């Protein structure tokens, strides 16, 4: 028993390799080894933490929409005009966070087990994500300022980068997945995660010379996203593997 | 296996259609296709995100109740009088958020599976909901100001609108439900979601000419809600289909 | 099927009465009626919302501990002395929130199903609970001021009141419980929920004439709580029914 | 039935001792006693609360990164230079919180049941953890100030202390665990929890005479952590019991 535990805690913890499990089981001759392995690689708490972080982020975004100073002479239009930049930053960031959450949910529908690497990559993905309310605050306050637009772009590029890393890490380890992906599917998922990153890189690069274009790109991505979902839905028969990573 | 996966990820992901599942199963000859479909449409994380957002919203509402400046001469009544507008806005918004959460829980007790459309409609429902603390902040600070009352009304109308859209979307897709609803039930649920929206629209419209009436309407809805629950409870035998959507 | 649904949605939703379920089942002749009833009364989301609110409250408490202004001449002791009132309010409120959460967990370990009344009483219990960070903010800033001490007391009395109401409501409805409680157990639980409320009422009443005594009472309750747990643990053989409601 | 309940609520609640369960079961002659015991000791809500608190803490950390005042003449580098101290404090605290969460997840993968002591130790562990955003705020604002560095150190030492206490408490009670740990494993886990505490104590002690060294230690721990994971991974064969507590 103690010996099993030593094995279980020292080796299986960090591996999640079907063959090692098989070896351990053969050696122990019971189901306990597998139960321990499954418990240690259960994605449940990773999802609980991630869903909690997403819930807080999209709710914190509103803290950057400040109650304006109202006087008797203020009209609704004037108040809304004053709020417009921070409301625009709120809506863009909210939709982006929604896209990231949907993407995370789709990815983890494929994942059966987590290992230490995946757990930490997920935490390091949450790091730039937690900077999104800060980025939205800058964008809402300085929506014409190249520096604010570039910092917002940096945050989005870092998020996209971590999504690519997690995608490559997870899909390259079939023992973490419910079902092995073929090469075409892996490339499709890579493209879906990589392309937004490149678009945000572009928005970052043009921010200095054309801040308006940069803001337009940030606002356009959610629109393009919903458009592409609709198009892909109707054309699902032809482009099957793209439809589910968006 | 890879072929199944290609199918599973390309088609079943976005469909949740009983017939397609049946076809896929017949083609694969095993239970894996169904397991994948169920995993991809599992509402669990949608509920986790939504419950998290509701928990944060009702807790953030209190951040708009600011610690007043107290001096030795202050009495409890004076302090409470100073806090009254923001406490009123807090209580109204808290009860409203509670009503929305109970409504969401009732709706999702009917829902067995989510599809991409429902997932996104739910996120777009959370968007105006996340503006509730901002609306409460305006209401608490400018409870006599038409503009503040109108912005609060806009937020509530947007929430009601999204509830109606989700209700129509979900109840129109029997493959997403545990049990098909008949037309009378669908109309009853529609009314329950639509009527508050119309009441808030009224409060929005009268805010400019009679701000006091507008505030009264916002305060009255929770009271009417509890009253109607009680009445419906005792008269449940006659109006069965209204009782559970309130 | 549609008929069952009509029944299920109109009547079973709000009842959770064993006899009605039995009648419905006899009428339908299958397990669907029971499945629907269980789904509609599942406490899972009530617990998810409540745990989320508790997690946020105990984390928001720290927002009332403000980073002090430091200058080169500041010593650690001076900084801590400056922070002392808000740290004291933080620790008291944190332990109180912990006690409330443990009490909620103990109560819901007895509860098998929720009905609409219990769901709403739970929400109305969260209302004064969400005012705890506000109360802690007042206490931390004006720890000598009678008004602040009385408002803190009002919040705690309201929480205790709601706990008593929920205890009476739930234990008076055996169909909501896993196991019926006998009268001695109900009285014991009532006492455990009522006594703190009376103590806080005392602290509220003495705040005007003796603010120091009032603060002392707030600080003493957590200490007495831990002491009573320890005493009850060693004397568990004699006072069985008190041990688990603390 | 009532008698069983009296037993279940008075004795089993606080014990979780296999032998007592066996006695109770023999006395009752059914599975209800065990079901009640398992429900009362279920770690689920402890994990829900803890994951919620961690999610909020890592998201609140960003609130200490304030949107800087930007003027037209500001370059990206200047803005980032201004943000650098608070970003450094954010990243250090974020990674530390991630390490604590991973450690909590690893520990509770070993824990099958909680008792009242473990539930309260977990709450008292969350107390200093909730002070982390406050500590990060001090570090970000006064990264050269000995007092701020010492307060940050105090928070980290308190967290490490609570981790050691929980480790000793849980691993000393085999009836709370899925599998008994042997002495070598208990010592290994103790070391993993104790050593960071000693390092932070060192950082606290040197803060007065060498603030730069203190800050360096705080920044180095996450780096050393990732380094040690990598080294331990490749040397897993030799140091099995260390690998999984890091």
**Helix/strand/pairing class of chain A, anyone?**
mainly alpha
Radius of gyration of chain A: 22 Å
Mean of residue pLDDT of chain A? Answer: 81
The tally of helices of chain A reads 10
Can you characterise this structure?
- The structure is a homotetramer of 246-residue chains.
- Chain A is mainly alpha-helical and 246 residues long.
- In chain A, 73% of the residues lie in helices and 0% in strands.
- Chain A is built from ten helices and no strands.
- Chain A has helices spanning 2-10, 18-28, 32-40, 44-60, 76-110, 116-130, 132-141, 146-171, 183-206, 211-234.
- In chain A, helix 7 (132-141) packs antiparallel against helix 8 and helix 9 (183-206) runs antiparallel to helix 10.
- The radius of gyration of chain A is 22 Å and the shape is elongated.
- Chains C and D meet through helix 4, helix 5 and helix 10 of C and helix 1, helix 3, helix 4, helix 6 and helix 7 of D.
């Amino acid at each position: 028993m103690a010996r099993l535990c030593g094995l279980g805690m020292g080796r299986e913890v960090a591996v999640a390799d079907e063959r090692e499990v098989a070896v351990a089981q053969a050696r122990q001759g019971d189901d306990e080894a597998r139960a321990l392995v499954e418990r240690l690689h259960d994605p449940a708490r990773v999802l609980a933490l991630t869903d909690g972080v997403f819930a807080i982020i999209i709710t914190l975004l509103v803290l950057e929409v400040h109650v304006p100073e109202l006087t008797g002479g203020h009209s609704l239009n004037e108040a809304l005009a004053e709020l417009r930049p921070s409301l625009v930053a709120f809506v863009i960031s909210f939709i982006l966070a929604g896209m990231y959450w949907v993407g995370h949910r789709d990815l983890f529908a494929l994942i059966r087990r987590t290992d230490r690497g995946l757990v930490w990559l997920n935490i390091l993905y949450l790091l730039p994500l937690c900077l999104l309310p800060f980025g939205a605050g800058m964008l809402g306050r300085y929506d014409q300022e190249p520096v604010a637009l570039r910092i917002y772009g940096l945050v989005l590029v870092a998020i996209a980068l971590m999504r690519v890393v997690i995608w490559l890490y997870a899909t390259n380890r079939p023992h973490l997945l419910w079902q092995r992906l073929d090469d075409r599917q892996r490339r499709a998922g890579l493209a879906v995660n990589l392309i937004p990153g490149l678009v945000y890189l572009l928005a970052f690069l043009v921010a200095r010379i054309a801040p308006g274009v940069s803001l337009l790109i940030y606002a356009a991505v959610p629109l393009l996203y919903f458009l592409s979902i609709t198009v892909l839905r109707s054309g699902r028969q032809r482009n099957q593997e793209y439809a589910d990573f968006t």
